[in-house]
Write a structure and sequence with these properties.
2 copies of one chain form a homodimer.
Chain A: H1 3-16, H2 29-36, H3 40-52, E1 56-59, E2 63-66, H4 90-97, H5 117-128, H6 132-136, H7 145-156, E3 167-170, H8 173-184, E4 190-195, H9 199-207, E5 211-218, E6 221-222, H10 224-234, E7 238-242, H11 255-268, E8 271-275, H12 289-293, E9 298-303, E10 315-318, H13 324-335, H14 341-351, H15 354-379, E11 383-384, E12 393-397, H16 404-413, E13 419-420, E14 433-437, H17 444-454
C-alpha cells in the first residue's frame, strides 16, 4: 500500500465506522501530514482522490468535509482491514462458495451427511400432505404456535422461563440477531463483543455502522475486570455473546462469570444477546445468562442450522415481553409474515423420536473427531488454546507465530479453506491463531497441505 | 388527543423521520407555543414528559436537545400518524393475525386454496428424495443456479436482459427490497414512493429512518411533471415502484411514462427498485423499467408468494452487475447463506407443466371475481378509481367522503378486515379510499357488514 492509499483507506474506514460523521470537517492537511509523518502533498493527493470519488468534498477556504451522500454501503470497504484475507466475510464467502467437495476445516458447520437428513426427509413428506393452509398461507406474525411451545419446553430444560408469546420465529439465527440489532442500535452506538468472537458478528455490526469494543475472552467467559472497565468507559448499548459452547474457542461460561457479567450489565442498563445455536451439542448444560436474567435484559436466540439442516431456514428469538410487539412490527416491515412450512418441517424433525438418538451419536462422533484431530495438529506444532468439552471447534495457536492469513491464502490455493484468527478478533491480536473444525478434518490431505504451507 | 399529546406526538414523529437529528436543539418553548397556538405551559409539560422518557434532554440555560441514545426503534411511534387504524402496519398485522377463516377483502394475497398447492406438494415430495446436500447444506451465496437460470429466461420474456450471475435469491420480496435499502440508503436520505403505494414500503422506509416524498400516481404511472419537480427539489436517492400491476390502484405503467421516468432518473443519478411480485397475473405485459434501463440503475425484484405459496419463503433480486458482490456480502452478513430447499421446491413447482395452466385459470377466476365484485360495491356507492386490466385489487372511493379508517375499525369489530386508503398514502390524501381484494370478496357477509358500517 502506498502512502496515499494508506491515508485513503484510513479516511474511508473512519467514515464507515462513523468516527467521521457525514457533514463533519476532516482534520487539516497539515495536521494529518504531521500525524502520519508524510508530506502535506501526499495528504492533498489522497484528499483529492477521495473528492473525485465523491466521498469527501471541499469548501473553498474551509477545508474538506465528509460528503452527505455516501456511496452504497460496501462491507468490504468498512473497518480498518482492507485485506480480503482477514476480512470478516472472507471465511463465510470461501466456505459457501467453494464446492462442497472442497476441504473446509475452516467452516462453521458439520458436513451434510452428519446432519439429520432422515428426519428432514420424513418432515418434508409429512408436510407435503398437510392442510392447504400450511402449504400456502403466511404464518401468524409470531410463527407456528406448536413450534414455539416446543421451544419454551426446551428452554425450560435450561432454566429459561419463557412464554410461547415471547418467542418469535425468524428465518435464521443471523436474522434473529439482525432484527434485534435493528431494533436496539442506532449508527454510532457502541457494542461489546468477545475477543475473539464469531466473525459474522463483526460483519453484521459493520452493516449497522456501530462502534465495536472487544472484551478479552478467557476459558471461563469474558474477562470480568475488562468488561467492567468497558461498561464504565464506553457506555455500550449491547453485548453479544454465545451461550454454552463459545465460537471460536470452544470455552464454556462459568457460573461465577455468568453471575458477575449479568450483575454488571443490569447495573449499566446494558442489553445482551445470548446466541445459543450450538445448544444441542452440549452434554452437560452450562449456565445461561437468559436463565439468570429471566429474559429481562437478555434476548436469547437460536436456530436449527447446525444440527438439523442449514438448507431449511428457521430460527427464533425469545425476547423480554415488553419488546415483542415492536419486534413483530419490525419483522413484518422487513420480511413480511414468514411462512409456516419451514417451521412445520422443523417441528416434525425435532419431535421425531430419532432426533435425540441422532444428537447423541453426533456427540460421540465429535468426541472421537477431537481425539483424532488434536494429535494430527500437534505433529505440525499446532496446539489448541483449550480442550473443549463439546462442539466442533478447536481454537489453535500456529507454531513460530506463523501468520494465519498468509497460511489461509496458501491453503486456499490448494483447495483447503481455513479460518484465520484475526477474522474473529476485534483487536487483531489473533494473527497466529486458526479455528479448526474437527468434523471437517477427516481427510489426510488437509494435514499434508497444512504441513507444506507451514514449511 | 390532548394538546400536550399533540406536541409529544409531533416531536416524536420529527425525531423518527430524522427531521430532528440526534443532538440537535429543539425549537424554543415560546416559538413552539406560538406555532401551535397553545400556552407555553402546555409545551413545557410536553417537553418534560419527553425528557422523562429519555427522548430529549435539557441543558441548563440552553434549552432542550434530542437525546443521542434513542429508545429502541418502534415503528408504531414513527411518522406522523399515531392512530393504529391508519398505521402502515395496521393492515398487515390484522390480515396476518386474524384467523384464516375471517373475511379479509383488505388483505394483499389470494385465499390459500387459489394458490398452486398441488405443485407445491409435488415439489416437497420430490425434494424429500433429493441429494443430502439439497436437504442439509447452505446454498452458494447467489442461491440455486438452476432457479436463477429459469428466472433470467422469464425476465427475458419481459425484455429484461440479465445474466444468472446478476440474480440473487433471497427469503422474500420484502427481504429483497430491505437488502437494497440497506445497501443504498443512509438515515436522512430521501426516497420517492408512489402516492398511493403498497403500505409496507412506508413501514420499511420508516425502519430505515429516511425521508419519504410521494409522487401522485395516475392511471398511466407516476405524474411525470411532479416526478421531475421532486427530483429537482429533493435530490432523492431512490424511487421504489411496482412493475406491471400497481398496488393498490391496479394501474399499468404506459410506455411513454416509463420512458420519461427513466430518462429523468438517469439524468438525476436516481436508483430505482422495480417490484414485480405480481408479474404472473398479467395477461399482456406492460413495459418494464428494468428492460428499458438494462439493469443499470434499476434493481428488479420479485417473489413467488402471490402465485405459488406464501408459506415457502423465496424471492430474488436482479441487480446491476457492479453491485452484486457487495449485495452478497450484505446478504451473508445479515442472513448468512440462505438454503437450497425453498429454491428447489419453487423450481420444481414453476417448471411443473401444471403451473402455466394454473395461472391461466387464476386469470379467468380473477376476471370473474372483478366482474362480480364491482356491481356489489356499486350498490353501496363504492366506486373503483379505474377498471384494472388484471390482478386482485380495486382501488375504490367510498361514498360521501366516508372515513376509511373509521369504516375499517367498525368492520374489524364484525370480523371483516379492510385496507383503509391512508395506509397507502404519503400525503394522507386517501382518507375516503379503500383497497379491495376481489379474490377475498366471495362472501355475502362482507357486503352486509360494509352496508351496516356505512349506514
Amino acid at each position: 500500500m502506498t502512502k496515499i492509499e494508506t491515508v485513503i483507506a484510513d479516511v474511508k474506514a473512519k467514515i464507515a465506522t462513523v468516527t467521521y460523521m457525514p457533514g463533519t470537517r476532516l482534520p487539516s492537511v497539515r495536521a494529518t501530514a504531521k500525524r502520519y509523518g508524510f508530506s502535506p502533498s501526499t495528504v492533498v493527493e489522497a484528499y483529492e482522490r477521495l473528492q473525485t470519488d465523491g466521498i469527501i468534498s471541499s469548501r473553498p477556504g474551509a477545508g474538506f468535509y465528509v460528503s452527505d451522500v455516501t456511496a452504497p454501503l460496501s462491507l468490504a470497504d468498512m473497518g480498518p482491514n482492507l485485506d480480503r484475507a482477514v476480512d470478516p466475510l472472507w471465511v463465510s464467502r470461501q466456505s459457501l462458495e467453494t464446492s462442497s467437495d472442497a476441504l473446509k476445516p475452516g467452516c462453521g458447520w458439520l458436513p451434510p451427511d452428519w446432519l439429520y437428513a432422515e428426519g428432514m426427509r420424513r418432515g418434508l413428506r409429512s408436510v407435503a400432505k398437510a392442510d392447504v393452509k400450511v402449504i400456502s398461507e403466511y404464518a401468524m406474525p409470531l410463527g407456528l404456535l406448536a413450534l414455539r411451545q416446543l421451544l419454551t419446553r426446551r428452554m425450560s430444560g435450561l432454566g429459561i422461563e419463557a412464554e410461547p408469546s415471547q418467542v418469535i420465529l425468524t428465518e435464521s439465527g443471523t436474522q434473529s440477531i439482525d432484527l434485534i440489532f435493528r431494533f436496539l442500535l442506532t449508527p454510532g452506538d457502541t457494542v461489546v463483543v468477545d475477543d475473539p468472537c464469531y466473525f459474522n458478528f463483526h460483519a453484521l455490526l459493520r452493516a449497522h455502522r456501530v462502534k465495536v469494543v472487544g472484551v478479552p475472552y478467557t476459558p471461563d467467559g469474558p474477562n470480568v475486570t475488562a468488561f467492567a472497565t468497558i461498561l464504565d468507559e464506553h457506555k455500550p448499548r449491547l453485548y453479544i455473546t454465545n451461550a454454552a459452547i463459545h465460537n471460536p474457542t470452544g470455552a464454556t461460561l462459568s457460573p461465577a462469570t455468568a453471575y458477575r457479567v449479568l450483575q454488571l450489565a443490569q447495573a449499566a442498563g446494558l442489553y445482551i444477546i445470548e446466541d445459543d445455536i450450538f445448544a444441542d451439542f452440549e452434554s452437560t448444560p452450562a449456565p445461561r445468562l437468559a436463565a439468570l436474567d429471566g429474559l429481562s435484559q437478555v434476548f436469547y436466540i437460536g436456530s436449527f442450522s447446525k444440527t438439523l439442516s442449514a438448507s431449511l431456514r428457521c430460527g427464533y428469538i425469545a425476547a423480554p415481553s415488553e419488546w415483542v410487539e415492536s419486534l413483530l412490527d419490525l419483522k413484518i416491515a422487513t420480511g413480511f409474515g414468514g411462512g409456516q412450512l419451514a417451521a412445520a418441517v422443523v417441528l416434525s424433525a425435532l419431535t421425531d423420536s430419532g432426533y435425540r438418538k441422532h444428537m447423541s451419536a453426533i456427540h460421540t462422533r465429535l468426541a472421537n473427531a477431537r481425539a483424532q484431530t488434536i494429535p494430527r495438529l500437534a505433529k505440525l506444532g499446532i496446539e489448541p488454546w483449550l480442550l473443549p468439552q463439546a462442539g466442533m471447534f478447536l481454537w489453535c495457536k500456529l507454531p513460530d507465530n506463523n501468520s494465519a492469513a498468509t497460511l489461509a491464502n496458501r491453503c486456499l490455493s490448494q483447495g483447503v479453506v481455513l479460518a484465520p484468527g484475526n477474522t474473529f478478533s476485534q483487536s487483531q491480536s489473533a494473527e497466529s491463531y486458526i479455528r479448526f473444525n474437527v468434523a471437517q478434518a477427516n481427510d489426510a490431505r488437509i494435514f499434508e497441505v497444512l504441513a507444506q504451507a507451514l514449511a
